[in-house]
Amino acid sequence: MVSVLRKIPIRKAVREKGKSLCVAAAVFFTTVLFVMVFSTLFFVMDAAEEMMKASSPMLSDAMLSVTEEEYERICANPRVAETSTGIIVARMREPSGAGIIPLYDAEEQMARWMRYYPVEGRMPERGNEIVVSDQYLRERGLTYREDLPINLTFTYLDEKEYTETFTVVGVYKRALQPYHAILVSDDFYGKVCAYWEQCGLDPREEADRQAGVMFSSHGNVRRLASMLVMEEEIDLEEGEIYINDISLLSSLDFSTWAALLALVLLVMWLGYLFISNIFHLSVTGDARFFGKLSTNGITKKEIKKLIRRQNNILFLAAVVPALLVGYLFSAAVLPGILSAFMTIQAGGSGNGWIFVLAFAFSYLTVRVSERKPMKLAKNASPVEMKRYIGGFRRVKTVDDGDCLKKFVVRHFQSDKIKVLKVCVSIAVSILLANIFYAVTAGFDVESYVAGDLDADYIFAKESVFTNPSLNPVSYERIAREEIAGCRGLPGVEAAGGASRSHICLLPTQEEWDAFEEIWGEGAYSDPGKMWTGAYGLDAMLLQKLQPISGTIDPDQFQTGKYILLDPILSDDNKENVACYQPGDEVTVPFASGEVGTYTVMAIVEELPESMRFPGRYYASNVYLPMSEWQDKEQQDDYYLYAFDVKETFHGEWDEAIEKIIGDQSSGLACRSAKSLAEQAGRYINGLKLAGFVLSAILLAMGVLNFINCMVESVYSRSRELAILESMGIGQREIEKNLAKEGMLYIAGGFVPGCLLAVFGVYAIINMVLQESYIAYHFYPHIYLLFAVLGSVVAVLVPLAAYRQMDRKEKFLYRIRSCRE
Questions:
Q1: Helices and strands per DSSP (H, E), number in the chain
Q2: I need a labelling partner for 467 at 20 to 30 A (CA). Which of 247, 314, 426, 537 fits?
Q3: What average pLDDT does range 629-658 have in this prediction?
Q4: How far apart are CA 286 and CA 267, in angstroms?
Q5: In the Cβ-directed half-sphere of 196, how many Cα atoms lie within 13 Å?
Q6: 673-716 and 718-726 are packed helices; what angle lies between their axes, rounded to 10 degrees?
Q7: Contact 705, 746 (CB under 8 A)
């Protein structure tokens, strides 16, 4: 008996192809929706983590200051997958005199992790070979060549300076490193150890050793590092450990988790509407079969296992292709939409959690959906199940009035839940289709480009465009030679660049109190120190600044005696107050160590968004003439460079820029009207496709629910329909009545869906998005399309179901059937 029961689910699934197909379709569509939800989450997270990793000062999980014994214990710890080390052996001053450069003996992997690995040349191997940064060579007026000799003046531990000749064998790009460093060879470290021994010191204790660590697990890096420190009893002081925690999953706040949970529950609810209805119809259609099983002594538990086994078979048959199709669709469409909607450049993700979570939640939805139908099948008495034909009351011939109308009314009254599920699926499909179409059709590309671009061509490193939390100290800059090719192109009307350095203003107590009165306490960890940005602007970008108080005199400003400030960054700063007022004297300590005193000429609005440095601090930014900034910072690079070009030359510029950007590996990027229009086009096309697929899935859910409901309702009322025929009502009249019943079904979803769409689309565009480049319009053809499709389905499905039933069950068979 047990072996027979195990075969029943497979036989029923194969024999009842229509029901099996509907269940599989329900699982398929629900799983696709779950895959899209979790793909969105992990696509965004992986892109954000990749962006954070690309802009991180180091590539290892953690970096610790340790002794040689502690490093050996770290290497043996099972939590650690890989380690590498570097030693600071001496120090020297920067060419500007503003800071200290360590001489660093690093293993090859440590050099890679700390971003010191040479992009040209090789690592130092012997003697006085060194690797320096491109910035260091520029500041000394040198150009890298093989075996370049250079004199360095450095110190060991004491204040005594030593000068030796070194050979430059490699150069690394100075961009994101935590600090400037010069790589030396093991031979040089050996010479330093000999010096320490001559001084009576132990090199093992004097060496400033740093350990880079990659953990075996990809969990919370901060927690893993803390456990490693405790297990190996490493004595660390503040500043002697750096955690490269780029995992976003552990840092998601409550609102993000709540939004994700709400989205998952919405998909589960939509899947439940679909799957539970089909399961219920499947069980009621097999009611007599389960009645026979009960009569033959099959227990409730065995019936439950039988139903669940059949559902599991259909679930597995549908979920695998659904996972594949859902992921392929998400990988093709979602990155374009997410990249246009957010500041990150999203891409596909191979994260296995997408499939695990989609599978788990799909199965959970199936289990929840099968509860009520399973309860109906296992708890009814054998006699009841043997005679069960559904929850419909049969028509009495003694009823007064129109029997056909009462026939329809009783059907809707006795089957409200099924009717509601069909109507909700159709209504939501209409709403989504109208929202997606209205947003994409009302998207004005020209307005979008004009509002998002403040120059015809804007050049910057890719990270400046894509990383909203770019490191303000060690970001990638544009060198003059990188844009030299653009300067010679024809049609230039205006050109100019912007530079930025990270500075700390030191206000008086009165000025600090005024700042805290606007922003509040806690803006900076060190009271009295206002970290902010010092900008150097060419004349073109200076013209983009709009005064709030005071006036801008370009000629006076270029003398280098004046600065401009923008307002304090605070939602409470309604009056656009800055840290200082026009006429105030401000002392600016530059990053190079230079100091300048300037008069505030005016308070201005912040630079236009397309020209801003990504991210900012709360204090006012300081704007200076480019010549003054370069003189004080002793730099001549830019974070951004812009061109305004005559429109007739745009085509020539577009072709030239493709070659300039494509022929180099420096990370230079360009934003132009063409690139933004292409980006907007990808966004619109992706949004259209995503909207079409989502609407089609929900519409398919509603239509399949409707088909199942109508087929089940026709078969469950087969005897009642036969009674109507015996009363002289022709088959054509019955078919008309069933078609009207179908129209009522569809109208129950169409009318609310249209009403929701009219008000919902208006609210989404004008109240939620509120973008000037998206205009609200009413598109009647979308409603007409749903009306035509709905009418066709509403008429054809009941007719097909009735005629199929009439062929399978003849009139005499139906009229003789009885119901006890």
A1: 29, 20
A2: 537
A3: 92
A4: 28
A5: 18
A6: 60
A7: no
Measured CA angle at 196 (ends 193, 200), to 5 deg: 135
From CA 644, how far away is CA 496, in angstroms rounded? 9
Tokens representing 446 are: 């020209």
Q: What is the mean pLDDT of the chain?
A: 82
Q: Which of 305, 313, 312, 310 is nearest to 378 (CA)?
A: 305
- Counted residue by residue, the chain has a size of 820
Amino acid (1-letter code) at residue 597: T
The one-letter amino acid at 311: N
Average pLDDT over residues 328-338: 80
pLDDT at 494 over 90: yes
814: nearest Cα among 316, 805, 12:
805
Helix 731-763 with 416-441: angle, nearest 10 deg:
50
Higher pLDDT, 174 or 394: 174
Confidence band, pLDDT 50/70/90 cuts, at residue 393:
very low
Q: What is the DSSP string of 767-810?
A: III--TTB-----HHHHHHHHHHHHHHHHHHHHHHHHHHHHHS-
Claim: this prediction has a pTM higher than 0.85:
no
What average pLDDT score do residues 516-525 get? 85
For residue range 535-551, list pLDDT tens digits in order. 999 999 999 999 999 99
Q: Are 459 and 669 in contact (CB under 8 A)?
A: yes
Cα dist from 614 to 567, 569, 624, 796, whole Å: 17, 14, 19, 58
In our burial notation (b when 16+ CB lie closer than 10 A, e otherwise), range 627-664 reads: ebbebbbbbbbbbbbbbebeeebbeebbebbeebbeee
CA dist., res. 662 & res. 669, Å (int)? 9
109 vs 803, more confident: 109
Q: In the chain, what's the furthest Cα-to-Cα distance?
A: 120
Q: At 599, is the pLDDT very low, low, confident or very high (cuts 50, 70, 90)?
A: very high
* Residues β-bridged to residue 597: 587
Note whether 363 and 311 are within 8 A (CB): no
| 147 neighbors 126 (Cβ within 8 angstroms) | no
Number of Cβ within a 10 Å radius of residue 118: 20
Tokens coding 153: 């003046």
Closest C-alpha among 284, 271, 180, 229 to residue 65: 229
Task: Say what the pLDDT of residue 503 is.
Answer: 92
What string of DSSP letters covers 122-187? ----STTEEEEEHHHHHHTT----TTEEEEEEEESSSS-EEEEEEEEEEEE--SS-SS--EEE-HH
Residues 680 and 365: their CA atoms lie apart, in Å, by 36
Alpha-carbon distance of 159 to 174, in angstroms, equals: 28
